[in-house]
């Protein structure tokens, strides 16, 4: 009886927040998420088709990771995001507590697994460029095993709220669901700390090390090749220098984009998580949480 009362009170609380949220915000959120869903389904479906069917020559170890990420994105866009779109247009979560748990689990699993796969792509690039001898004899089987481990690890982590470690609850303005940010029940605070450590701090550290090592390796090889070219004609040397410089610049931009976009996407969310856990009296506008979901 007490559990039902708690669920009803939580639901009513977010129903009130949803009712107090301006209609334009619900409508705008619904439109943005609807368009994002359509773009995600089309783009990820096209990438999967192109890599698996249309042009198999593009299949490499890295593309196996990309296909896995696209499948996760397609899964979330098809079976998860439409629930929030419908709720936004109705200004209320329409799928009950069970639907909330389902949505929270699905989106958490897809998002967290994608983070691990992005991290493993950086490791794969590190092995291919820096430890090139290791990559010569590497087939796609270790990659498939790695992806499976990432999936199992994330499944174990996201299933934890269903068996007593934290919980999935209504979030934002009451039209979506996520892991409980407050974490006052079911050892939720330890869950949030583990989430930030495993799926934010660790991936960022690995990406910075991997892509930084890749850039340093390319820069070192470029200087070595440039030193050799000094014995050649001046015109050829200048041409080689410009070519190497362009490659270094492109690689530097790639590194900045990979790490930069990851930080842009997840630093605000990680900061909100830690702030909410460390400061129990902190008041966070529900619209802020909803904007991150968008």
UniProtKB/TrEMBL annotation:
Record-level Gene Ontology MF annotations: G protein-coupled receptor activity
Domain G-protein coupled receptors family 1 profile: 43-294
Membrane-traversing stretches: 32-52, 64-85, 105-128, 140-163, 191-214, 251-275
Topological category with respect to the lipid bilayer: Multi-pass membrane protein
Entry keyword Membrane: yes
Record InterPro entries: GPCR_opsins, GPCR_Rhodpsn, GPCR_Rhodpsn_7TM
GO cellular component, one term: membrane
Sorted UniProt keywords: G-protein coupled receptor, Membrane, Receptor, Transducer, Transmembrane, Transmembrane helix
Keyword Membrane attributed: yes
Family per record: Belongs to the G-protein coupled receptor 1 family.
PANTHER family per UniProt: OPSIN (PTHR24240)
Organism: Mytilus coruscus
Protein name from the UniProt record: OPN4
Compartments reported by the entry: Membrane
């Amino acid at each position: 009886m007490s559990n039902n009362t708690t669920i009803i009170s939580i639901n009513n609380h977010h129903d009130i927040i949803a009712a107090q949220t301006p209609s334009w915000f619900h409508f705008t959120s619904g439109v943005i998420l609807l368009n994002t869903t359509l773009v995600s389904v089309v783009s990820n479906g096209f990438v999967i088709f192109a890599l698996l069917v249309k042009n198999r020559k593009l299949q490499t170890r890295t593309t196996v990771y990309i296909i896995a990420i696209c499948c996760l994105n397609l899964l979330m866009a098809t079976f998860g995001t439409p629930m929030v779109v419908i709720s936004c247009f109705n200004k209320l979560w329409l799928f009950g507590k069970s639907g909330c748990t389902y949505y929270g689990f699905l989106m958490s699993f897809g998002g967290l697994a994608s983070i691990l796969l992005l991290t493993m792509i950086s490791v794969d690039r590190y092995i291919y460029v820096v430890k090139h001898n290791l990559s010569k004899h590497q087939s796609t089987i270790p990659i498939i095993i790695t992806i499976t481990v990432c999936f199992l690890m994330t499944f174990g982590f996201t299933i934890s709220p269903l068996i007593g470690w934290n919980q999935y609850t209504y979030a934002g303005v009451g039209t979506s669901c996520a892991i409980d940010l407050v974490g006052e029940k079911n050892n939720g605070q330890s869950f949030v700390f583990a989430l930030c450590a495993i799926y934010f701090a660790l991936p960022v550290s690995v990406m910075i090390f991997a892509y930084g090592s890749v850039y340093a390796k390319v820069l070192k090889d470029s200087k070595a090749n440039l030193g050799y070219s000094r014995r050649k004609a001046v015109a050829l040397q200048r041409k080689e220098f410009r070519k190497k410089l362009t490659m270094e610049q492109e690689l530097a931009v790639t590194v900045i984009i990979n790490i930069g976009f990851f930080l842009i996407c997840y630093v605000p969310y990680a900061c909100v998580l830690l702030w909410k856990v460390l400061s129990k009296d902190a008041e966070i506008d529900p619209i802020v949480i909803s904007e991150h979901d968008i």
